[in-house]
Design goal:
- The complex is a heterodimer.
- In chain A, 39% of the residues lie in helices and 23% in strands.
- The radius of gyration of chain A is 19 Å and the shape is globular.
- Chain A folds into 2 domains: 1-80 and 171-254, Rossmann fold, CATH 3.40.50; 89-168, no CATH class.
- By secondary structure, chain A is an alpha/beta fold.
- The two termini of chain A are 35 Å apart.
- A 6-stranded mixed β-sheet of chain A has the order 6-7-8-3-9-10, with helices on both faces.
- Chain A contains 10 helices and 10 strands.
- Chain B has a single domain (13-321), classed as ABC transporter involved in vitamin B12 uptake, BtuC (Orthogonal Bundle), CATH 1.10.3470.
- Classes of the chains: A alpha/beta, B mainly alpha.
């Protein structure tokens, strides 16, 4: 199978500090791929490099065969690689509905003049976007919270809104930075369920950073282990569990 | 609509829409009941409504501390006056040119923000830009007539209507204000308006949604510059003489005061701010020497007790008054 994402020899330096060195792996459609490793291993840096938030020092990133390295974050997002953030990813003063609508920005095809003059075509495009956003929020049981500013929602609801916003455009590849952090155990299980369904039923490629090792072991197809910026292991949960280097670098401390 | 906030809302957003449409219609009665002086104040309110609506896009919606608004205002006023005085350009066309030149000034101001100059740095650069423009008006004697000011011609027409008293000016200003406020409202309640507010809330995340943030920062500044540029062209006709000191640092404070007193990021708030800080200072003029004190006190009191502006009083009546970034 052709990989969705190819990361080849990726290195990122921050003023001499090696945040990532020579990382290589492929990621596939319909796969849940977890990225694990101790704090400072370079997990978020890997996401930042793929999504264009930090420049790579060396190496290449291909999405569906097209190079991503060197592109701006908004261009990478438009190509279909979308991400969430560890914290503060939402627009707190905007309502849940407006947050999701912002996620649909590229899909709502209303032009400047149509909007300013209030032309029927532009209004129709906006209306379709609103309907779609409301439907997505309903699907995640967030319909009742749609009109509330997201800063007034619970931590779990906020996470859901962010996922809905990121998913709104049905991106082929989704990078989730600690999607279940701060959630209660039942909410966590629900979120992992949703993530598995998105991969299994929708065929979305998902990469996620996660610290809760049980969730990683039960919820992912493949695990990539980073330590001090290097990829030290890659494989199924079973394979990674038995890898000596991983035990020493990571699981030993857990 | 908003049932879960506990307090049952008296007004639905649908009723509110009709209320908004009714306000300018009801205003049509003003020329028949007000004398020339009162009508002059109303006309000034219409000018400052556009000044504040335009400024608020940058301060409230985009969330940038750019104070080039007064410069846009002056550029609009001088553009229109210069075209009419030296070019014999009809007023209607000069308004359009003020919008274009104001938009260009907005584009210039956006370049600083795009280059990563933000917060205090952006504030001081844009203030300096305003003072620089004032220097140009003062020293561009041959064209601007320096501190004497540039007197606009006596026979000004808007689409054939002679603007020889406050009454015709009122109808023309009302038309321009309604058109531009409605257009701005359309813009702010669309994907464009959401992108602008999203940038205020979190610029990095906004880009992750595929939104070209630089494009919307430029758009916000250009639109703001155009709206305020038109206000400048109206101001030229309102005061009949364009003076450099009408665009100084005190004016920056007044404009900023209107945005804050009315309510940041709110079009309704902008209108309230323009009304409040045009009428009250005018009223206080009967206490010479104290008027500036009163002006300061109003701003302090409002911000102390209503930090979100006077518009927040309306939110207590109905949450429907809160700014929304979509139209249903």
């Amino acid at each position: 199978m052709e990989p969705l994402l190819k990361v080849q020899g990726l290195s990122v330096n921050f003023s001499g500090l090696k945040a990532l060195s020579d990382v290589t792996f492929d990621s596939f459609a319909g796969e849940v791929r977890a990225v694990i490793g101790p704090n400072g291993a370079g997990k978020t840096t890997l996401f930042n490099a793929i999504s264009g938030y930090v420049p790579s020092t060396a190496g290449q990133i291909f999405f569906k065969g097209e190079p991503l390295h060197g592109l701006a974050p908004h261009d990478i997002s438009v190509k279909g690689v979308r991400r969430t953030f560890q914290t503060g990813g939402l627009f707190p003063e905007m309502s849940a509905l407006e947050n999701v609508l912002a996620g649909l920005h590229v899909q709502i095809e209303s032009g400047f003049f149509g909007i300013v003059l209030g032309l029927a075509e532009a209004r129709e495009a906006e209306r379709e976007g609103i309907l779609r956003a409301k439907r997505l929020l309903d699907l995640m049981d967030l319909g009742a919270a749609a009109e509330q500013p997201v800063k007034d929602l619970s931590g779990g609801q906020q996470r859901m809104v962010e996922i809905v916003r990121t998913l709104a455009t049905e991106p082929p590849l989704l990078l989730l930075d600690e999607p279940v952090v701060g959630l209660s155990p039942p909410m966590r299980d629900r979120m992992m369920d949703i993530i598995r369904r998105l991969a299994g039923e929708e065929g979305i490629g998902i990469m996620l950073i996660e610290h809760v090792i049980d969730l990683v072991m039960s919820g992912s197809d493949t695990i990539v282990v980073l330590s001090s910026g290097e990829l030290i292991a890659e494989g199924t949960p079973e394979e990674v569990r038995q890898n000596r280097e991983v035990l020493e670098a990571y699981l030993g401390h857990a | 609509m908003e049932k879960k906030n506990g307090n049952t809302s008296l007004i639905t957003s649908n009723q509110l829409r009709w209320f908004y449409y009714l306000v300018p219609v009801a205003a049509l009665i003003i020329p028949f009941v007000a004398n020339e002086y009162l009508l002059w104040i109303v006309n000034a309110i219409l000018v400052y409504t556009l000044v504040t609506v335009g400024f608020n896009i940058i301060i409230g919606n985009l969330g940038q501390l750019a104070f080039a608004n007064t410069a846009f205002f002056g550029i609009g006023a001088y553009t229109s006056a210069i075209l009419m005085v030296y070019g014999g350009v009809p007023y209607t066309l000069s308004i359009l040119m003020s919008a274009i030149v104001g938009g260009l000034a907005g584009f210039l101001a956006s370049v600083t923000a795009l280059r990563g100059i933000r917060l205090y740095y952006l504030a001081i650069i844009t203030l300096a830009f305003g003072e620089l423009m004032r220097w140009v008006y003062l020293h561009g004697d041959d064209v601007t007539k320096g501190s004497d000011g540039l007197r606009i011609p006596d026979d000004i027409f808007f689409l054939g209507i002679p603007l020889d008293s406050e009454v015709p000016k009122f109808f023309v200003f009302l038309l321009l204000a309604v058109l531009l406020v409605k257009a701005t409202s359309n813009l702010m309640r669309s994907r464009i308006g959401r992108a602008i507010v999203a940038i205020r809330e979190n610029e990095a995340t906004t880009a992750s949604l595929g939104i070209h943030t630089a494009r919307y920062i430029v758009l916000a500044f250009v639109w703001s510059g155009s709206v305020v540029g038109v206000a400048g062209a109206m101001f030229a006709v309102l005061t009949e003489r364009v003076l450099p000191e009408a665009f100084g640092l005190t004016e920056v404070i007044i404009h900023f005061g209107m945005v804050l007193v009315g309510g940041t990021g709110s079009i309704v708030g902008s209108v309230i701010g323009a009304i409040t800080l045009t009428t009250l200072p005018e009223y206080f003029r009967q206490f010479p020497g104290m008027d500036e004190l009163f002006f300061g006190i109003i701003i302090v009191l409002v911000l102390l007790f209503l930090p979100k502006g006077i518009v927040s009083l309306l939110w207590r009546i109905s949450p429907a008054f809160k700014e929304r970034y979509y139209r249903d």
